[in-house]
Sequence to fold (75 residues):
Amino acid sequence: MTREGNENQQGAVQGVANRIKQGAGAAFDAADNTLQATENIAMNTVDQTAKAVGKTMNSVGNAMGNGQNNQEKNS
Fold:
C-alpha cells in the first residue's frame, strides 16, 4: 500500500474510533442523567413519606389530646 493510501486508511480508522467514542459518551451521559433522575425521585419520595408520617403523628397526637380533654371535661 502506498504511503498516501495508508494515511487515508489511518484517517478512516481514526474517524470510526471518534464516532464510537462520541456514541459511548452520549450513552454514558444518558445513563448518568437517568441515574440522577432516579436519585431525585427517590429523595422526593423519602421527603414526602417523612411529611406524611409527620402529619399522621400530629393527627394522632391531636386526637389523643382531644380525647384526654374530653375525658377531663366528663370527669
